[in-house]
Amino acid sequence: MVLHMVTLALSKGRVLRESLPILREAGIFPVEDIFGSRKLMFATNIQHLRLVILRGVDVPTYVQFGAADLGITGKDQLLEHGGEGYYEPLDLKIAPCRLMTAALPFVEVSFDRTVVATKYVNVARRFYAEMGRQTELIKLYGAMELAPILDLSDEIVDIVDTGNTLAAHGLVAKKLIANVSSRLIVNKIAMKTNFRVVDEIINSIRNVVGSDYEAI
Ligand code: PRP
Predict the structure, then answer these.
(1) Quick check: CB of 27 below 6 Å from ligand 1?
(2) Could you tell me the pTM of the whole model?
(3) Digit-coded pLDDT (tens) for 90-131
(4) Does the Cβ of 98 fall within 6 Å of ligand 1?
(5) How far is the CA of 20 from the centre of ligand 1 (A)?
(6) Which end of the chain is more exposed for a tag (fewer CB within 10 A), N or C?
(7) Is the CB of 47 under 6 A from ligand 1?
């Protein structure tokens, strides 16, 4: 029987470094060294499974549209993307951190209109709206910590892990928006049309990480 090629999208950086050992334990590994290569697509030991290496922010988009059948990326990216077009069957419990608001200390909370700089504009819009706070959102692509210092914004929404980056800029974390870890996501259509192969991959990873989730 000929099996369709299945594509698993991984997020480069820390998530990639921490997800490869889990995949290996699940019996899935690239046939060449990902870190020693400029390539973005890799064959695996499983003939009908390939890996692609993306920026974490792009993983939900590839999986939503079925360009990748499965993906591994942070919950922060999923919250920002909105969750359309895919299931989220597994928490890999790797790359843990928190999505938080932060600001300079001793700045009064403004109940008129808070200027918030972030790359997580959708997350921030929802969070501040739920708190009944008016915001002006400024989209940034990095170095959010500079925004309050240079008076671009009152607050930022960003990932906090050790807290060292905030501390290095004299900022303090304020409100927790969400706890973050990496998740396995699966395109909804691939889950139906390619059930046998996709389900086998999910189960082999589930056997490594355990599961808090109901089977799909
Ligand atoms: C994240 C985040 C902070 C830092 C927080 O950046 O944007 O800058 O990590 O970590 P800490 O609390 O341990 O200091 P990352 O290194 O992922 O780079 P990026 O934001 O440019 O993607």
Answers:
(1) no
(2) 0.93
(3) 999 999 999 999 999 987 766 689 999 999 999 999 999 999
(4) no
(5) 21
(6) N
(7) no
Helices 14-25, 195-209: axis angle to 10 degrees equals: 100
Q: Which tens digit of pLDDT belongs to each residue from 131-175?
A: 999 999 999 999 999 999 999 999 999 999 999 999 999 999 999
Q: What is the rounded (10 degree) CA torsion for 144, 146, 152, 158? A: 20
Residue 30, Cβ density class (10 Å: 0-12 exposed, 13-18 middle, ≥19 buried) = buried
Give Cβ neighbours of residue 7 (< 8 Å, ≥ 6 apart): 49, 50, 51, 52, 67, 68, 69, 70
State both tokens at 90: 């597994």
Which residue owns the Cα nearest ligand 1 atom 19? Answer: 142
- Which atom of ligand 1 is least distant from the CA of 164? 14
Query: Does residue 165 have its Cβ closer than 6 Å to ligand 1?
Result: yes
Domains in the chain, start-ordered, CATH in brackets?
A: 6-95+181-209 (3.40.190.10), 97-178 (3.40.190.10)
Distance from the alpha carbon of residue 65 to the mean position of ligand 1, in angstroms: 28
